[in-house]
Amino acid sequence: xxxxxxxxxxxxxxxxxxxxxxxxxxxxxxxxxxxxxxxxxxxxxxxxxxxxxxxxxxxxxxxxxxxxxxxxxxxxxxxxxxxxxxxxxxxxxxxxxxxxxxxxxxxxxxxxxxxxxxxxxxxxxxxxxxxxxxxxxxxxxxxxxxxxxxxxxxxxxxxxxxxxxxxxxxxxxxxxxxxxxxxxxxxxxxxxxxxxxxxxxxxxxxxxxxxxxxxxxxxxxxxxxxxxxxxxxxxxxxxxxxxxxxxxxxxxxxxxxxxxxxxxxxxxxxxxxxxxxxxxxxxxxxxxxxxxxxxxxxxxxxxxxxxxxxxxxxxxxxxxxxxxxxxxxxxxxxxxxxxxxxxxxxxxxxxxxxxxxxxxxxxxxxxxxxxxxxxxxxxxxxxxxxxxxxxxxxxxxxxxxxxxxxxxxxxxxxxxxxxxxxxxxxxxxxxxxxxxxxxxxxxxxxxxxxxxxxxxxxxxxxxxxxxxxxxxxxxxxxxxxxxxxxxxxxxxxxxxxxxxxxxxxxxxxxxxxxxxxxxxxxxxxxxxxxxxxxxxxxxxxxxxxxxxxxxxxxxxxxxxxxxxxxxxxxxxxxxxxxxxxxxxxxxxxxxxxxxxxxxxxxxxxxxxxxxxxxxxxxxxxxxxxxxxxxxxxxxxxxxxxxxxxxxxxxxxxxxxxxxxxxxxxxxxxxxxxxxxxxxxxxxxxxxxxxxxxxxxxxxxxxxxxxxxxxxxxxxxxxxxxxxxxxxxxxxxxxxxxxxxxxxxxxxxxx
Length: 750
Ligand code: DGJ
Prior knowledge:
- The chain has 14 helices and 41 strands.
- With 750 residues, the protein is an alpha+beta fold.
- The chain has three domains: 2-306, Beta-galactosidase, Chain A, domain 5, CATH 2.70.98; 309-393 and 405-434 and 442-472 and 486-611, Aldolase class I (TIM Barrel); 628-747, no CATH class.
- α9 (528-538) runs parallel beside α10 and α10 (565-573) runs parallel beside α11 (588-603).
- It is globular, with a radius of gyration of 28 Å.
């Protein structure tokens, strides 16, 4: 709810408040952003700069409180006494925007750039600031405990304005913080880094043209003693898929300025008289319940207001993707064979990845030419799709419509459609980006992709993009708006198609893309140990239903690490499950294990995909409808391990729960020459007998089953002992390096 009284605005959610004040100089002060407070609390947060500020500048020479550099603000401008980062730059001119008016309205203010969906919720505050020749709207929309913010700049004068920076949000927060960012690169997305925010500005920025795998759009600001379950923490993100910039810096007065928006790198736009410039939306929220509490708020917001309405809590199919198993080497027969095997394992959707069109037999040619390769697919996509449907699976297809190979008919016909910078083209994965600021390019993509989607029974699209942009500044900004237009035109009229976006894995997994497709392929790295970092980091800001998580072969293609099949499965359970490997090399016992995995995932799919996700000390947990499922992940085995506890979260302490281990099978081969201790004859660990036995015989690992109160389960129950050099025993857990266990905890209704 948003209230206004005597120059004070109060945006109040369930647990979060933002209190803003129009001060006597017409500046918009941020009195408070954090815990929910009462209307009428503004005086308690009043800034009293009081004393003289030495070298600082006053707005009113007779009033020592009028020092912009010392105030906590919600907007500012350069050259008028505030020397911290400015959110707006007009080509080096001073800016002095002051309060003019405000409005409070229901839902979203229709300015053309909001991608958020209100669904009958939300309330907006628009504060208009002005100066001669310019007007600026600051738009705040409150959804529960999340505030979305954007700005609209209008040239109200009679001369052009040069805009070199326009951010979506500025906030001066009281206090000292640690800033957590999620950084990396290809196959190493979302590594978490935490640094103290001090007087030197920390900038989390992407200038690749995409939101990028280098520095993700979302950041956290926490107090030093904040933990997973306790303490104060802010979350910031952007609903934007292009170049971005979030900066934090602490002033001498102890205020931490946070600025969020499109990266100003190379930005220079001429805003003609009467024209407007609109920013994308910044997202912000706060929790006193640690990182876990913050994630819960953000997950709800993404599920309710970001992903397309038709996919809200709608179960996603277990998919099989052809890429890792086949790469470019397939034909109709091989795909149908794979689809039959995938169906037999329980997969529901068969996705044909790269290589189905033009001369696309490797990644050097064919991008841009969306005509089906009849050599590989003599029955066309329609024939293949219908065949797959007849097997009882739905059919999905990969596209990379934003890019072009120079060795393609499209490039030969329209070399000017590729984005270039005036120098010799620099290739990335042998390709260039198409210039989406050109209407004819957008039309080409919309027409070609739409025609293919309508030509075959396609119910899923993987939309890939594997090239950084050469476009800087305004061009890069317009390029992303062009992309959004293309996605809206293709998928708006086809809401039944499940869209998963991808960019070399996680090079563009952000809230902007999630507004068009409810899930992202968050990394090409499917090694489950790396995925614990990648999916774990994503979970700070996004719910698990927004990321595709696939089981692939071991040793893993990117790390050469061998991990147990159950670990690969359990990590992928905490996302939208898929399989991506060559099935023909799987052993019968591996197929049985995959069948069991998919069966279990389907049984609890609602909980896995839409339950409340929580990070545990040694794993993850999801809960919903009286069911909690917890996975414990481990690294290297320790000799002589001690007792181990599993501490669950979010249960009702008064209720009783049934707890059981999901059965795990041990391969005989993993015991090598130790088998001689249990076998009556001396077996060669590399011999045929043991190798054959390994393909057929498994031993059950230790399982626990009991009932306990929620209080006990949250205090931490003791798990079965781990293997400690004493031989196999069915009442212990025999986990190897990178092992994992899964536990199901259900409310006991008896
Ligand atoms: C990059 C993607 O991230 C992969 O999953 C795969 O689709 C390849 N492109 C295909 O070229």
